[in-house]
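About this split. The held-out portion is used to measure sequence recovery: a designer receives only the C-alpha cells and must propose an amino acid at every position. Recovery is the fraction of positions where the proposal matches the reference. Here is one held-out target exactly as it appears in the evaluation file.
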C-alpha cells in the first residue's frame, strides 16, 4: 500500500475579533511563559491542527470567561492541585457553557459545568455559585481513578458524562494556553505527547490490516471476529479515537462529514438503501487508491476490495474527529423499513449519569 499522504486542514482562528496581545495582557500583564503549549494538535485525525489555536481561541473569550478561567486556576492552586487539573476544568467549562455562569440549560442544568440539582450536584443557589461549582468539579475529578494520566478531554468527560465525549478535546489548546499563561506554568501538557495527525489514520489502517482473513460475525468487535462497524470502531480505537458502534450511529455521531470525492485514508465509507443515511447497512474503512477494507457479510472474512457503488454508496464519508457533528448531521427519525445490517436499530444517545457522584447534565 502506498504511504499515506494526509492533508492537514488549518483551522482559522478569530484573533481579529479581539487582539491576541490584548487578552494575553489581560491575563498576565506582561505576558507569560509556556506559550508553546498552545501549539498542540487537538483535533484528532488528519483534518485539524492545533498550531496557534490556543491563543486564537483565548482571544475570543469574554471578560466573564477570562474571570472564570482565572478563578478555576486560583482555586486549583489553593487546593494544591496540579496544572493538569486546571486544564481539565477549563476544557469542561468551555465545552459546557462557554465559560459562563449560565442560569439555564438542558433540563435543570445550570452554571459553568451545567450541573443538575436533580442529579444531586447541589441546590440551585449552590450550582450557580462560581466557587462552589469549581470546587465541586474538582471533588468529582479527584474521585475519577487515574485522571492524572488521562488526556484532559477524556478526564473532563468522566466528570461530565456527555453523550458526545469527543467534544472536550476541541478546547485543549486554549485551556493549555490559559494554564501556561495565567498559571505561569512551563512544562508538559497532554498535547506534546499526542501522535501526529497522519499517524492516527495510519494506526487505524494498520490495525485493520492485521484483521484480514478473520470471519464476519454479526455484532462482533474482535478480537477473533468482526462485523462491519465493529471492525471500523476497533480500528480507530487502536489509534486512540473512540467512535460509537453500529454503522448508522457512526455516520451520524462518528465525526465530520466530508464529500466522498475528498475522502482520505482512514475515512469511513457507507452504503445505504436508496443512498439514504437512515437506510445505512454497511461501513468500510477507506484505504486510498479507490480501495476499502471491510468485514463484508456472514460467511465471508475481512478483506480489501475495490470501492463499489451498486446504487447504495453514500456521497458523504465520515472523518473521525474530536468535535461532535453539527446539528445538521443529527439523524432524523428513521423512515427506512430495513434496519442496519449490524444492529437491530441505532442506539439512543446515552443520557448523563453519575461518575463517583451524580454527573453534570451537559449538552446532549
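Reference sequence for scoring:
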Amino acid at each position: 500500500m502506498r504511504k499515506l499522504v494526509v492533508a492537514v486542514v488549518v483551522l482559522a482562528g478569530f484573533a481579529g475579533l479581539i487582539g491576541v496581545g490584548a487578552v494575553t495582557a489581560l491575563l498576565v500583564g506582561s505576558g507569560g511563559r509556556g506559550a508553546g503549549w498552545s501549539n498542540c494538535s487537538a483535533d484528532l485525525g488528519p483534518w485539524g491542527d492545533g498550531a496557534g489555536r490556543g491563543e486564537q481561541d483565548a482571544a475570543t473569550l469574554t471578560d466573564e470567561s477570562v474571570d472564570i478561567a482565572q478563578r478555576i486556576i486560583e482555586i486549583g492552586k489553593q487546593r494544591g492541585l496540579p496544572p493538569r487539573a486546571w486544564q481539565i476544568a477549563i476544557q469542561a467549562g468551555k465545552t459546557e457553557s462557554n465559560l459562563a455562569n449560565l442560569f439555564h440549560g438542558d433540563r435543570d442544568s445550570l452554571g459553568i459545568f451545567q450541573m443538575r440539582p436533580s442529579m444531586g450536584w447541589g441546590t440551585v443557589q449552590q450550582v450557580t455559585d462560581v466557587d462552589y461549582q469549581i470546587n465541586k468539579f474538582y471533588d468529582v475529578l479527584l474521585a475519577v481513578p487515574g485522571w492524572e494520566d488521562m488526556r484532559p478531554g477524556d478526564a473532563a468527560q468522566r466528570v461530565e458524562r456527555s453523550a458526545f465525549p469527543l467534544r472536550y478535546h476541541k478546547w485543549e489548546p486554549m485551556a493549555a494556553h490559559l494554564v501556561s499563561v495565567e498559571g505561569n506554568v512551563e512544562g508538559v501538557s497532554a498535547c506534546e505527547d499526542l501522535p501526529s495527525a497522519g499517524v492516527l489514520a495510519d494506526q487505524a489502517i494498520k490495525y485493520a490490516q492485521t484483521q484480514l482473513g478473520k470471519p464476519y460475525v454479526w455484532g462482533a468487535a474482535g478480537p477473533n471476529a468482526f462485523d462491519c462497524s465493529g471492525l471500523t470502531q476497533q480500528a480507530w480505537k487502536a489509534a486512540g479515537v473512540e467512535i460509537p458502534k453500529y454503522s448508522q450511529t457512526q455516520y451520524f455521531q462518528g465525526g465530520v462529514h466530508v464529500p466522498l470525492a475528498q475522502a482520505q485514508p482512514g475515512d469511513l465509507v457507507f452504503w445505504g438503501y436508496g443512498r439514504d443515511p437512515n437506510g445505512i447497512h454497511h461501513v468500510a474503512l477507506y484505504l486510498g487508491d479507490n480501495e476499502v477494507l471491510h468485514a463484508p457479510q456472514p460467511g465471508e472474512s475481512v478483506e480489501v476490495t475495490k470501492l463499489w457503488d451498486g446504487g447504495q454508496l453514500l456521497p458523504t464519508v465520515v472523518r473521525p474527529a474530536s468535535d461532535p457533528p453539527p446539528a445538521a448531521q443529527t439523524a432524523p427519525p428513521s423512515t427506512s423499513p430495513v434496519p442496519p445490517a449490524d444492529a437491530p436499530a441505532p442506539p439512543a444517545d446515552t443520557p448523563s449519569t453519575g461518575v463517583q457522584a451524580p454527573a453534570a447534565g451537559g449538552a446532549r
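Annotator remark: DSSP finds eleven helices and six strands in the chain.
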